[in-house]
């Protein structure tokens, strides 16, 4: 509405100028008859009232065109003026030309205001006109030319009003420059941004030129430091967008805590904005700006600053794990290594997201939890197993063999915890430390098994058969080279496992020897030396009967292996 009022005001001003122009036509030499003069004045008054009324009542753009206004003028003049007078006709022609030019200028300025991007004007624009057209490079060039003109003179004194006006124009230009940079992520702003960046490079060059001149001889606005203004604004833009990410990124709503949601939203914001920089802004910037690297550093720093604040607060283990996951996994692999970003961003130059002190504190919190977790798993699972022994519960049969779930339940949990620690902490020694608990656990296992065989329980042979399966499963896990045992821990675990197997075998063999002991007495007797084979046949038959008692023991547990990490089973 205010723009329309302004346009109407300008139209009325033009109309007033028209009256003034036509008034000069009335002041002809005395040979103009007084009657004709009076008639023309009356016609002009009527004409201008009709013209102004037409402008105020018109609601369509067509009614505001120069052609429409001139047609209306012709109609009015055709009624008012007396035909056939050459001087009057000539004066009317001059008036029409001036009216047309003024209205064309007014219409052109209106098009300027509706323009979203710099356009090539049909006429040369002044400084304000170029700013209205978003032609910042051209506006800045005009300022440079005015500056050169004003300060190239050898005269000491300069017109103070001219210098003040140029200073004001520079302030207006820099304000407009700030607005354009602040709106960098707007897709409609790309052409204007290109023009602004061109002007920044020129301003930097001009600042360098004036740096060689004494301070008191420079313009008061030098140096303008437009590049510094640009860089500071980018930092502010990034910080603001990261703060607003908590409200704009909604994909994190399913996460359990507000901290996890905030971290996820910030990480997603970093990726989305860097992709926009690579896809859109990169084409606007000259190579000197290295804009992809600049934005990557700014977003990295903003993300790092907030993560430091969160890491130093009282966070839960779940939140600690989530932050570590972003630092070690999601950010370097999913964000920075995105296929569109990788070739434009050198992630190795960005540095760590957290200072070493903060990172170590999170790692310690996480590792301590994992240590306790493994210890708890082993302890709880083994307590349940020992309770089954104490209650003399018969082990399960699977595929005809006695079986225990103990190793099957525990080993995947231990292995998963070790892999998690290796992934997040990238420290082999910490993985070794976790597996050290397996050594102490196996020693407890050995002690409990030794106590078991001292009891007089019916299901001990079956329990030992099931435990031999556990022992072999533990052995296979320890022997695999991909599992990160230290050599000392691996050797100690294998030694304890060998002892566990010997305990079971010794128990079975002692029962066989007890049963065969009466037959042993017949050996090395005169009957046996006399060649009677009954003794040998009885012994073989007794052994075969005992072997049948082991049919429910898995075949792998019945085999004698001489190469078991240098231990004979």
TrEMBL record:
The superkingdom of the source organism is Eukaryota
Single Gene Ontology BP annotation: exocytosis
Which Gene Ontology molecular-function terms are recorded? SNARE binding
GO CC list: exocyst
Q: What is this protein called?
A: Tumor necrosis factor alpha-induced protein 2-like
Its organism's taxonomic lineage begins at: Eukaryota, Metazoa, Chordata, Craniata, Vertebrata
